[in-house]
Design a protein that fits this description.
The chain has helices at residues 2-28, 47-67, 74-79, 102-122, 136-159, 228-236, 248-256, 293-302, 310-318, 393-396, and strands spanning 183-186, 189-193, 212-216, 219-222, 265-268, 271-275, 280-282, 372-378, 404-407, 424-426, 435-436, 440-441. The protein folds into 2 domains: 2-165, Four Helix Bundle (Hemerythrin (Met), subunit A) (Up-down Bundle), CATH 1.20.120.450; 183-227 and 264-441, paralog of FGE (formylglycine-generating enzyme) (Alpha-Beta Complex), CATH 3.90.1580.10. It is of the alpha+beta class. Helix 2 runs parallel beside helix 4 and helix 2 runs antiparallel to helix 5 (136-159). It has 10 helices and 12 strands. Helices cover 32% and strands 11% of the residues. The chain has a 4-stranded mixed sheet with strand order 10-9-8-11. A 3-stranded antiparallel sheet has the order 1-4-12. A 3-stranded antiparallel sheet has the order 5-6-7, with no helix packed on it.
Length: 442
């Protein structure tokens, strides 16, 4: 019976991986073919890299830790192995001609898919039986979640493409109107961050371990995320012109890049419009503003507040007035049965008050979906951190004090990443992530 259960779990994960493949294939089809060698975000590779990267990652992962198969295309395996994350300079300078043709890349992708699927069908995993080996279901989960991560970050890239370079997709419009925000009191209590290791531990990436509990003092937090209308008041008050609101590093970045407003805003004469995924939209006053950590921090300073710590954010989302903690803000029910702007349900944000039942026990609304939320916590290891052998640089390469934790999720975040232990992170001067924020005070 146990064997049958194990087979079923692997089959389910294989089906999930196939669904994630189909998701990413549909995503690449949004981009018109003549634009697949574009670089919509200066800090990232050209789009063509990611077509090869998703398969190269799966292949390098499985053949190294599961199949023990020889590479047929080592040069491509290395070319498409790793993305880039330059911090404040050192932008890539490669040209379209430096990359293989689409025909070569697509042939490479199909060859790897065939090899992977045939090996999985064979069910012979010699490397999994080694003392330091990983089970097939763990590695399938790694491949599945890695692909879904890129399904979101690719959306960030495609969002910055000119509309003429994309095939438009239909999305319902949502009316906008001002939203009155307020601050809610969160009583002192505990926040349990991360996961505990053990035979029955659920899957998690290395930075989600080891679990520990921290005492959180009483604080107040915004009921809703900061909206575009809220942030407009900061802009109109000269927030981008006042160096006292910015750290020296953030101010230098802003001045060097001539940044004077959020990346998703466009000037429309004396007014503003919004850069939606597939069309220019009237200014959505009640959508969450998407900004960099630097911009969010400057706004918080202007408002005489601050960004929440990772522990404060978790306490507001998962804590309860009775002292216990729950897996989701609304309780124990899985995200699929709950309202919210997540799991690829929309391309753009929704009003911050669109899902009133997506709230915590303390009535904080919308902490899952509709936009990741910046914290003031630098991305760093939890006590007892151990890098995963199957992806040693996944987290450790970014423990540099130059990245900050974001929590929650966006419209393009898969449901599996809504688990309370999941940690995302970006550098403070990256404007393109679907991330907003809410403020806290004493």
């Amino acid at each position: 019976m146990a064997t049958q259960s194990k087979v079923t779990a692997i089959d389910q994960l294989r089906n999930s991986l196939l669904e994630a493949r189909a998701n990413s294939d549909r995503l690449f089809q949004i981009v018109r073919e003549h634009s697949l060698y574009e670089r919509p975000i200066p800090e990232r590779h050209r789009i063509v890299f990611y077509i090869g990267h998703l398969e190269a990652f799966d292949w390098n992962l499985f053949r190294t830790h599961l199949f023990s198969l020889e590479s047929r295309t080592p040069a491509f395996d290395q070319l498409f192995a790793f993305g880039i994350d330059p911090v404040d300079g050192g932008l890539p300078t490669d040209q379209p001609g430096d990359w293989p043709s689409l025909l070569e890349v697509r042939s490479y992708v199909q060859t790897l898919r065939n090899l992977i699927d045939d090996a999985l069908d064979g069910g012979f995993f010699p490397l999994a039986d080694k003392p330091d080996g990983y089970s097939p279901d763990t590695l399938l989960r790694v491949a599945y979640e890695h692909r879904l991560m890129h399904a979101e970050t690719l959306a960030y890239m495609f969002h910055q493409l000119p509309y003429s370079r994309k095939h438009p997709q239909y999305q319902d419009s949502q009316s906008t109107s001002p939203v009155a925000n307020e601050m809610l009191e969160i009583p002192a209590g505990q926040a349990t961050l991360g996961l505990s290791r053990g035979p029955s531990a659920p899957f998690g990436w290395d930075n989600e371990f080891e679990s520990f509990t921290i005492n959180v003092r009483r604080f107040r937090i915004d009921k809703h995320m900061v909206t575009n209308a809220d942030f407009l008041r900061f802009v109109e008050a000269g927030g981008y012109l006042n160096p006292q609101l910015w750290s020296p590093e953030d101010w230098q970045w802003k001045e060097r890049q001539s940044i004077s407003h959020p990346a998703f805003w466009n000037s429309a004469g004396s007014a503003w419009s919004y850069r939606g995924m597939f069309e220019e939209l009237p200014f959505p006053s009640d959508w969450p503003v998407y900004v960099s950590h630097a911009e969010a921090s400057a706004y918080a300073s202007w408002a005489k507040k601050s960004l929440p710590t990772e522990a404060q954010w978790h306490r507001a989302a998962n804590g309860t007035s009775q002292g216990a903690e729950q897996p989701y803000p609304w309780g124990t029910a899985a995200p699929g049965s709950n309202p919210g702007n997540f799991d690829f349900r929309r391309w753009d944000p929704a009003p911050v008050n669109a899902f009133p039942f997506n709230k915590s026990d303390f009535d904080v609304v919308g902490q899952l979906g509709n936009g990741w939320e910046w914290t003031s916590t630098p991305f760093a290891p939890f006590p007892g951190f151990q890098a995963s052998a199957y992806y040693p640089g996944y987290s450790a390469n970014f423990f540099d004090g130059k990245h900050f934790v974001i929590k929650g999720g966006s419209a393009r975040t898969a449901a599996c990443f809504l688990r309370s232990s999941f940690r995302n992170w970006f550098q403070p001067h990256y404007q393109y992530v679907y991330a907003g924020f809410r403020c806290v005070s004493e």
